[in-house]
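step: validate -> pass
step: tokenize input -> pass
step: predict -> running
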Amino acid sequence: SSSPAVSEPEPSLGGYWEVSKALDANERWREVAVSDDGTKVAATSWIGAITTWDPANPTVKSRVDPTDLYLYYALGMSADGSKIAAGSFHKEVVLSENGGVSYRKLAIPNGKSNPSTGQWYQFAYSRDFSVFVAPDAESGDVWISRDLFQTWTRWTPDVPLEQKKWSGAAASDDGTRLALSAHNGGIWISGDAGVTWTQADPDQVGSERKFLRMASSADGAKLACVVNDGYILISDD
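step: predict -> pass
step: emit ->
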């Protein structure tokens, strides 16, 4: 009698990795963002370049090099990959609406001679970018757009500047549930697209921790925050 057929096990998620041929191995890369279907990828480097490409065809890519040394710490991509936002350290926020072919500076009305100049570490945004939150660690102001960057609303908590050095941000897919983390100021939560905010209980998250980057589930019900004392905080409510 013949032996029964043996099925091959399905490959595990993340079980295979390869070096992207789209990138220069000698360049120091900082941030990466991916479209929902994985066909578009963007990455920023320490020299300030923004590179976008399709992993299935890595030889075809778009690269935008700055005229100055822009350290892009914040990077975001819409679900379809058509919109890309990057925020630099002590420089401005730039936006591409053509998949990374070209960028323009966003005119965030912060009253500075060069609009949108600030310290941008992480953005929070809906997957279509209709809700976009840009927390500025330099001023402590949080800038929110709910109409694809046409207008901006400013919010800032009534706490000392040292407690609103924003270091992380996260959003649900629809942008209604938002979270911010401040390096020395805890975690703030919004359930109405940034209209109102509530500070997370310091007794739960810790009042002396230095909070860093954040991430959210699609529905915003689960949040994660990296802390530089070696822990990752998780919330599921």
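step: describe -> Residues 202-205 form the longest helix (4 residues).
step: cleanup -> pass
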